[in-house]
Amino acid sequence: MAALLQHPCYEEERLRRVADKLPCREVQAGTLLSVMGGPEQHSFPSIFIYGHRASGKSHVIHMLLRELELPHATVSCVECVSVALLFEQVLLSLFGCDAASLLPRSPSLSDFVRIYRQQCSHSPAVQTRYIVMEKAELLRDMDANLLPALLRLQELVQDNVTVILLSEIVWDKFRPNTGCFEPLQLHFPDYSKGELQQILAQDSHPSYSAELYSSYINILLGVFYSVCRDLRELRHLAALNFSKFCEPLEEGKVKESDTHKLWRNIEPHLKKAMQTVYLREVSSVQWEQLQQMEEKDTGAVRGLSAHAHVELPYYSKFLLIAAYLASYNPARTDKRFFVKHHGKVRKTNFLKKHEKTSNHLLGPKPFPLDRLLAIFYSVVDSRVAPTASIFSQISSLVTLQLLAQVGHDDQIDAPKYKCAVSLDFIRAISRTVNFDIVKYLYDFL
Ligand SMILES: Nc1ncnc2c1ncn2[C@@H]1O[C@H](COP(=O)(O)OP(=O)(O)OP(=O)(O)O)[C@@H](O)[C@H]1O
Ligand SMILES: [Mg+2]
């Protein structure tokens, strides 16, 4: 495999080391290397790399630039909210802080080109300089002339410089209608299940054998692959649940070779974790950074149960519970559940026999805000005044996608919501506030 990464300008040993760090991306790395050429050779003015999230775009580029020790600047278009920051970052990385300080207060593109050329005449490029633009799709929202200029920066500054754009979006959606220089395009396809297995299995745990870890990854992918193919997300899940997987081994109940027993032990946990794949306080990107910082004390990834990890404010929990009840109970039953002295409701009337279909099978129904609040005030014991904070908590729940707002934008005065969480989830939330939700659900009477 490593044979794909070959170039007469680099030692074979070094390229092999690079290839080892780029499993399943040898083809793309090989193409890139041949476009980039040797360090002293002139390279293509701009390269456009696209592929879905976590398809290894940044990983491959940085591994190549770092391991081959090529001069480069990395700019995140998310961080650079203005072109001034972007220019500063590039000059700083390529020429040092003196060059960056030459930029005027709100620099134009021509200021940047002028300073670049000036610096370049002092220190002409011995090796190709690379400028990597992360999340390049954001460049489309910046100055209209910025993207066309970056694509042909090589010509503008007359330097051996290559701009590499990394994006999740295809080039067709970038091309300005006024036309521009066409970059060289390179696609990073999604990883297949087998490739994910191969990459994830590399993270094996120091105190367990590589085979055990590999079979663990196999189980993990068996459960999660249908809902999540994001390498970052999967890696996070793998680390999170590994200690649970090893529990029977540590207790000495099971031998490493008995994968079936291990599978039986971990499967329910993984299924549970599945409900909250994307639901947690730290995103997988942040988690990755934390991991890197904590690399010293390896192994001890704090096991966080997926449910326990959704920390909501006290009243938000009740709001969510009320929303769940409003979504799954028919409105006519509210009186029976939530009015203390509701008078006599004849049981036969209340439980209509022909209503066989479970509301849970039908899915959540939309409800208006006043019904939500009515249920909320009834389930929350202590009296709370309807304050702005209750409303802002509702909108936070919508932002967290625990509630979904339905209906049209023109119904500003009468918004309707749906509860978007599962029964297991709401039961876990209810337990934390000692509320027995099952007693209040019409389906379970
Ligand atoms: N082939 C691979 N081998 C090992 N690790 C990989 C590989 N591809 C990706 N990764 C790891 O997966 C994570 C995500 O990859 P990367 O940041 O390169 O994705 P990306 O394509 O740049 O995604 P985004 O579009 O979100 O920026 C990184 O931690 C990276 O180290
Ligand atoms: Mg990236």
TrEMBL record:
Keyword Nucleotide-binding: yes
Domain annotation ORC5 lid: ranges: 213-280
Localization: Nucleus
Domain of life assignment: Eukaryota
Keywords, sorted A to Z: ATP-binding, DNA replication, Nucleotide-binding, Nucleus
InterPro entries the UniProt entry points to: AAA_16, ORC5, ORC5_C, ORC5_lid, P-loop_NTPase
Any one GO BP annotation for this protein: DNA replication initiation
Domain Orc1-like AAA ATPase span(s) in chain numbering: 21-164
GO molecular function: ATP binding; DNA replication origin binding
Subunit architecture: Component of ORC, a complex composed of at least 6 subunits: ORC1, ORC2, ORC3, ORC4, ORC5 and ORC6. ORC is regulated in a cell-cycle dependent manner. It is sequentially assembled at the exit from anaphase of mitosis and disassembled as cells enter S phase.
Entry's family note: Belongs to the ORC5 family.
Physiological role: Component of the origin recognition complex (ORC) that binds origins of replication. DNA-binding is ATP-dependent. The specific DNA sequences that define origins of replication have not been identified yet. ORC is required to assemble the pre-replication complex necessary to initiate DNA replication.
Name of protein: Origin recognition complex subunit 5
Lineage: Eukaryota, Metazoa, Chordata, Craniata, Vertebrata
